[in-house]
């Protein structure tokens, strides 16, 4: 693999976003624009992680994901920029981090966040290029004019349980979409499966594998068993959807992408920018690159790269945002989170380069917030009860340590894969800290991050944008 691809200048990267990179470039896969019809099926799971045999978890059976993996390049280092549903989905569908597209938090209900009106999303650009667009399942982003789809069965016009969870119904909707295809018109179909926790439990708590960041307790094991069941249902859905694609004759001209929006809904997972909250499964199945099928790649991928990858597949030009960032090293991904629910203001920025992860917790003096769904989960309730009673938690952190974080957290995942030892205060790591801080800051400026000066200065954007000091002791 060409290690310089992520560092190449935009002018040299015919057709790739300056901010991110399309995966064809990253993997040295050549995509040549021609008259052959190409389609895309984008499958984004909800809160799914590595609970699949594709990623060597032998406690769960996901035969359809495994079959897809045999026709895919399997990414070992893929990351979301933000560990929250709507912000992540907006980033996936625009190629812009949440602070740049405006979707700072959840879209639905009282949270009410939306992308900026001028954002040119993937479905908008594809629609303008004459490509038929479809969405099935939870949409969770807005406003409507920024994310238009020709064919839409979402929570906006249906029961989300029917279009997001009922896999038989989803199969019928995929069939309906494919039967509506005009000859020679390409399509982009986006399927978003939805949440867990309502399914019968096919797995026992004893069967599950407990990752390092989850307490090994009966409560957490039961929750994990439910997560496995959800993934199994998703896997069945993937089997049905891919069968529809095959039977409609589109298997050999459709790029299939599978990933998830954010970390799994467990402590240190969703809403966190640690590895456990931001690492994602990623399968890229191109019918035109069969020699790469089954390959495992260590290349770093950001879910921001989905938009340029899909645009490249269709040979559709990129929007020319004046706010685009600069070239990114091939082994580097960035993270940016501001809120989840409207009350959960806890801005974080991160950079992950090779084995190193740096997290900047801007509001580190306040406790890390907990979301409503996670709060009522048996895993978290058990953690609270055990902590209050002074009983062992079987967790790798204390609640206090989870709530109160250092402003800068620097981890070396080679020596410390669980990210438990903060190296930022260690003078021996001073040069590394300095370098990663500079890299992160550069990305924030390049992507017009309104939070770029926090928490010790104010961004004064008039004339020459600059940080003006607050002298607040930070
Ligand atoms: Ca989610």
Automatic annotation (TrEMBL):
Domain Sulfatase N-terminal: 38-315
Cofactor: Ca(2+)
CDD domains hit by this protein: SGSH (cd16027)
Keyword Signal applies: yes
UniProt keyword terms in alphabetical order: Glycoprotein, Hydrolase, Signal
Pfam families: Sulfatase
Keyword check for Iron: no
Single GO MF descriptor: N-sulfoglucosamine sulfohydrolase activity
Organism superkingdom: Eukaryota
GO annotation, biological process: glycosaminoglycan catabolic process; heparan sulfate proteoglycan catabolic process
The family this protein is said to belong to: Belongs to the sulfatase family.
The name this protein goes by in its record: Sulfatase N-terminal domain-containing protein
Organism of provenance: Conger conger
